[in-house]
Amino acid sequence: MSISIDAAELHTGLSHVLKLTKTRTVKPILNCVRMELTNETLILEATDLEVTLRYFIKGVSGSVLNEDSVVQGSIVVNSQKLHQIIKKLKKQKEILLWVTENKLYIQKGTKTFYLLLDDPDEFPIIPIKAGKDFIEISEKNFVNRMNKTLFAVAKDMSCYSYNGLLLEISPEKELVFVATDGRRLAIFGDFQETKTSDTKSHIVPIKAVNLVLGMIKKPKDDSNLYIDYYKNPIQFALPGRFEVMVRVLEGNFPSFRDAIPDYNTKSLDLIIKRAEMLDALDTCGLTAGHEVRSVNIRLTKDFKIVLSSDQEGIGGTSIKLPVSHGDVPAVRVTEVRDGVDVGVTKQDYFYEEELTINPDFLTDYLKVLDSEDVEFFIQDYTSVIRVESSSIKDDGSFYIVMPITSK
To answer: Is the domain of 312 the same as that of 241?
Structure first.
């Protein structure tokens, strides 16, 4: 008996499957996709043994895909070749699939293809999570948090525990996302000042996060993503659309709380137009070097920020930016005692000193923000810079950048 399915929807599902199966492996069965038909829903299953995907396609006409299968209605077939065939047919509204004599046939009009099936007994058993401990977050909120943190994940594969995103859940189910490569730190969420024994922490591999994000093309406020964080593996699920089970990374994630400056001291607070800062960093980047990129930042006594760069044997750039917010100069040095601002003073030692940073690190964060203004906190010219957005949408997000050198 054949089934009828929308070719474009099947092509989309297989495109997500390929993110797990289109890799070299000593187990050829891992290059396959398992397809099961149940209640007019076609389920695509794929795994690389670290990340597992179950993708659901609804509205499929037909009763069973393969009556002779051990699991009624299920088959295992090479995913890459099936994807190539469906890609040829994706402009067609409906295509037919059926199984005969260990072959999967795909047909539309005058075109008929077939693929040999693999042994379903060799395909890994995919567990179903019980859903004991889970947290809900809207699609839009999840994507927003990912955009504000994911860029800071380490690209260097030798930093194993840095190659993932830290997911931390407090006993009150407050969700925090943290990413670092050792030179910068991106955080989104209200975290506890002191981590308790009841706090759950998992390092999620970057490929799993990218897989989930790829299946949320148009995030909605009224649709929730469920994150089951009870033990390993954890699971991300949008009911009726997909389930992604993830074996979290082993190792110790850096203690991000220790990297956050203590603001119960004097600090410089600057408010700068985001677009102007981005343009200045991009311009200075032209002469910031290649291997070790650097831009100097200096505050003048007339409330200006000077950005400069100098590339040996090439040339240099200097740009002066106003530091203002409305009609009030937004430069203040605050003295905080026991968490309370006790006054505003101007301190000469903040002026005419230079702080050197990698411009790309700062640009990466400014690009993903939604606000018109950004706020910079500087304790001194030997400490890290803390950057925050003025947008309510970014509330709970901040960024730490380490300086390269201080003068």
So the answer is: no
Residue 9, Cβ neighbours under 10 Å: how many? 17
Q: 299, 284 in Cβ contact below 8 A?
A: no
* Shared-domain flag, residues 389 and 350: yes
Checking if the pLDDT of 336 tops 80, the result is no
**Domain check: are 337 and 385 in the same one?**
yes
- Same structural domain for residues 357 and 401? yes
Q: pLDDT tens digits for 170-186? A: 888 889 999 999 889 99
Which of residues 93, 122, 151 is at a domain's end?
122
For the residues 123-135, what does the mean pLDDT come to?
77
Whether 128 is covered by a domain: the verdict is no
What b/e readout covers 323-334, taking b as 16+ CB neighbours within 10 angstroms? bbeeeeebbbbb
| pTM assigned to the model | 0.85
Q: pLDDT (tens digit, 9 = 90+) per residue, 13-34? A: 999 999 999 877 778 999 999 9
Domain of residue 32, residue span: 3-122
Among candidate residues 122, 144, 163, the one where a domain is terminated: 122
pLDDT digits (tens, 9 = 90+) for 192-210: 777 777 888 999 999 999 9
